[in-house]
Design goal:
Layout lengths: L4 H8 L23 H16 L7 E6 L5 H18 L3 E8 L6 H12 L10 H15 L1 E8 L1 H17 L12 E7 L10 H7 L3 E4 L4 H15 L7 H11 L9 H17 L7 H7 L5 H10 L4 H17 L4 E2 H15 L6 H13 L4 E4 L9 E4 L4 H22 L1
Parallel strand pairs: 1-4, 1-5, 2-3, 3-4
Antiparallel strand pairs: 6-8, 7-8
Helix pairs in contact: 2-3, 4-5, 8-9, 8-10, 9-10, 10-11, 13-14, 13-15, 13-16
The structure holds adenosine-5'-triphosphate and magnesium ion.
Adenosine-5'-triphosphate binds next to helix 3, helix 8 and helix 10.
């Protein structure tokens, strides 16, 4: 069998990831470190559903900021309680609806019907008719459901009080029937409920569970757990996780968002793979966290191809720009700085012509801009400027200079 080597090699390329998909946003982990308390509260609230099914109409509101585990907690809980119900001989179905996607009453009800798997024609019925048909189906087959309305604020904003009222007061008219639908509402903030009338609001807020942003210690544990699922052993050290956690933890000025912490870990792993590195390094994380300016990312590959003297010249340009606090410097000033640096690094400066060639090369690579001065300058001279952040660039250039100097030392 003949295959194209170039393509095959990409698939064979070693990777730091063992199961990359366990870092994708849609993956629901088995465990949720530091959400035990919220899971316990849910279990308490839903206890009657297992112990005396149908007697109590249960609803709970979960509130917390971005990426703090609300959706994941609801899904993990749904999976667990289904199993527990089954042990008690109950047919319990868990339904998860994202109201950002399904935000009208009609869409929500037909999605519940679909996820329950009830053979009810979705077309031709009103939302009300569909819901009644569903209740009949549940009754007939002795099924119970927990319906999570995630991003519930979208539903409220789209459909308003009446639709919410319709959903949650379904059992008011039939007080003697079994309560076969319970609700988990999820929203980032409670103020979304302001639009509702006070009775509806207090009906929803019967129980609330709060999700606080994660601290860096908590994020560290979460990252460690998810790292072990996603990466080969030994490819991501704890200090990498610590670095991300310190950056995102709410107690360290971050937003305590697990999603963005996990995304940084994923991106760092991909950066390591891209470079063919067998380990994820801090520099990959810095890139992933967006700490590195995108322009620096763009040119940093090119920088590593520069020769020692080109790097010294680049440093001379950076320093001249920084010292004079101007947007462009004259090549004469750069040369002066360059000669000074050569003395400092103890290397012999290159000729004037050679320096011109370096300038052209750096310009060609898009690292610097160079143009010949127009009016306003005595004589004509080349003006040089750099548009990427100088501090970061200089740090990068320093790293490469010491690398190159170390290498030449070894050779000679
Ligand atoms: N305690 C945790 N342990 C492991 N993974 C977690 C934990 N908390 C959150 N995550 C992960 O972080 C990501 C974000 O969590 P989730 O989607 O539940 O946040 P959310 O609170 O619903 O945010 P949003 O309001 O933006 O929808 C998911 O990938 C989830 O698996
Ligand atoms: Mg969510």
């Amino acid at each position: 069998m003949v295959s194209n080597e170039a393509i095959v090699s990409v698939f064979k390329k070693p990777s730091v990831f063992k199961n990359i998909e366990t870092l994708y946003p849609e993956y629901v982990p088995l465990k949720l470190p530091h959400r035990e308390n919220q899971l316990k509260q849910l279990a308490e609230i839903f206890r009657p559903l297992i112990l005396s099914p149908g007697n109590v109409f249960i609803r709970v509101m979960m509130v917390g900021g971005v990426g703090v585990g609300k959706t994941a907690t609801a899904k993990v809980f749904g999976k667990e309680i289904k199993l527990i119900a089954a042990e008690h001989g109950l047919d319990l179905r868990y339904v998860h609806i994202n109201c950002h996607r399904d935000r009208t009453l009609y869409e929500v009800v037909s999605e519940v019907v679909r996820q329950v798997g009830a053979p009810i024609p979705i077309r031709g019925l009103s939302a009300r008719e569909m819901l009644l048909a569903l209740l009949n189906y549940l009754e007939k087959h002795n099924i119970f459901t927990i319906v999570t309305l995630d991003e519930f604020n979208y539903f409220i904003a789209t459909e308003g009080n009446d639709a919410v009222y319709f959903l949650i007061r379904i059992y008011d008219e039939y007080s003697d029937v079994k309560k076969r639908i319970s609700y988990i509402f999820i929203s980032r903030n409670i103020s979304a409920l302001n639009m509702l009338d006070p009775t509806t609001e207090s009906y929803i807020l019967r129980h609330t569970i709060r999700f606080d942003p994660y601290t860096s210690d908590e994020l560290f544990d979460i990252l460690r757990y998810r790292r072990d699922l996603a990466f080969y052993e030994g490819t991501v050290d704890d200090d990498i996780l610590r670095y991300i956690a310190e950056h995102k933890g709410v107690n360290k000025g971050g937003d305590g968002n697990a999603r963005s912490a996990l995304e940084a870990l994923l991106l760092a792993g991909q950066a390591a793979d891209y470079e063919g590195s067998q380990k994820v390094k801090i520099e990959h994380v810095r890139k992933a966290l967006g700490l590195v300016h995108p322009d620096i990312v763009r040119i940093s590959d090119d920088l590593s191809y520069l020769q020692l003297h080109e790097l010294i010249l680049l440093k001379a340009i950076i320093r001249s720009l920084k010292n004079r606090e101007v947007h462009f410097v004259k090549i004469g000033d750069v040369e002066e700085e360059y000669r000074y640096l050569c003395q400092f690094y103890n290397v012999k400066p290159r000729s004037h012509t050679q320096i011109y060639e370096y300038v052209n090369n750096l310009k060609y690579m898009g690292i610097i801009e160079a143009r010949v001065s127009g009016k306003g300058f005595r004589g004509r001279t080349t003006l040089i400027s750099i548009s990427v952040p100088l501090e970061e660039l200089e740090r990068k250039v320093d790293e490469l200079i010491s690398l190159k100097r170390g290498m030449t030392k070894n050779i000679t």
